Amino acid sequence: MAETAPLYTAPAPQPAAPAPVPVSNRLHRPLSLMISAAILASSAVTASAQSRSVPVVRDAEIEALITDYTTPILNAAGLGKKRIGTILVNSPSFNAFVDGRRIFINTGTLLQSETPNEIIGVIAHETGHLAGGHQDRLREQLKQAKTMAVIGTLLGLGAGIAGAATRNSAIAGAGGGIAAGGGEIAMRSLLSYQRTEEAAADRSAINYLNKTGQSAKGMLTTFERFASALSISGTQVDAYRISHPLPRDRIANLTTLAHQSPYFEKKDPEALQLRHDMARAKIAAYSGGLGSLQRMFRNNPRGVGARYGDAIYTFLNGNPRNAIPKIDALIKEQPKNPYFREIKGEMLLKANNPAGAAAEFKQAAALDPRKSSLIRMSYGRALMLTGNKANMEAAIRELKAGMVRDPEFSEGYGYLAQAYGQSGQMGLSDLATADQHYYAGRINEAKIFATRAQTRLKSGSPDWLRAQDIINTKTKKK
């Protein structure tokens, strides 16, 4: 990023069609919160940026919350039927960006947003980029900027050659200045365009918030935070060399519009605020530690959010048997909360009680209104880990059901491969392993297992053909 303070990013120039988000490694043992390596191809940036690794977080509870934040905004923008996805990025910084048909949101954005309204404002802004088609126009601006830079360089080289030929050092020096000036002009032109699009996305966000009956106060709170951070740091920013308007400029541009809304003083529903607090508590427990949790809930240390975070922190960093009574107390208060059951299942797995974990995951899946693929796969994984062959058929069924809803989630294929292996279906185990490597971006390894799977599968069967598709995959040259 060009900014010296964390601001919303301009829309990243990406292909219109979303690339798969492969999963290759996890931050922690539980399925409930994990990290993967997502490779995003970029066709409009330099070669060094054409393949970037983004650490992606998967969590059923947080994904459900973000979906509830995003859906009304997308509908207001006319994008409700466009299948826009949202992806959580494991980063402590306050940031969000888009790439065609996906919105990426840093976990740090959730941590720093004290109210749902603040994060909804971020989502509304990014939706403005998508609805405005800013990425397509940004690609055109990049092409123009590149052309301007090339022309400037050529003019500079021509002047330098002429100066050298005539032994005129002044002309030669001017050639270098022209070449540098061409790049500077191109950069400033591009950044000016990006600032214009950022301002347009801000205004669109206000419109979407009004259409959905929500306040824009959260957006102003966010920009005030950025402005304060710049002021405290004492950083001097060249307003012409950044891709976003300065926070104070954004506040000045939006304040009147925000206050004109009849919803400006509207507060978030208490139930939504509680869900937001619990999502923040979970992220803090996994990444920020006990001190972060205590600071977050210093004004309400015995609230549900604080106790939820404490239970998860105890599970991750202590004896899981000490964490189970803490989550049981929360389950007693909210017996229909599927995510309390889900995290208890993870605790029981860590306590080497897969049968008890399976029972909790089963209840979580039954209570989950979203029918999360992650919870279904957790249930199947727990059944598989019991080691009881009588459970293998059900384990495979649950894992496959989860994969149907989340077909690019590579970790699920790994568990499915184990379940097939324990049930003696080695051809399907090899195929699932091939899919795991394939969706993790390890194509060569995927081909090895697909070839081995074909030797154990019926020729021409759907599974055999799937293996052939993997074998026929062309790897892109770097």
From TrEMBL:
SUPFAM superfamilies documented for this protein: TPR-like
GO CC, one annotated term: membrane
InterPro entries given in the database record: Mito/Outer_Membr_Metalloprot, Peptidase_M48, TPR-like_helical_dom_sf
Database matches in Pfam families: Peptidase_M48
Gene Ontology MF terms: metal ion binding; metalloendopeptidase activity
Cofactor(s) required for function per UniProt: Zn(2+)
Chain ranges of the Peptidase M48 domain: 73-256
Gene3D superfamilies: Metalloproteases ('zincins'), catalytic domain (3.30.2010.10), Tetratricopeptide repeat domain (1.25.40.10)
Keywords: Hydrolase, Metal-binding, Metalloprotease, Protease, Zinc
Gene Ontology annotations of biological process type: proteolysis involved in protein catabolic process
PANTHER family found in the cross-reference section: METALLOENDOPEPTIDASE OMA1, METALLOENDOPEPTIDASE OMA1, MITOCHONDRIAL
Protein name, UniProt field: Putative Zn-dependent protease
Taxon lineage: Bacteria, Pseudomonadati, Pseudomonadota, Alphaproteobacteria, Hyphomicrobiales
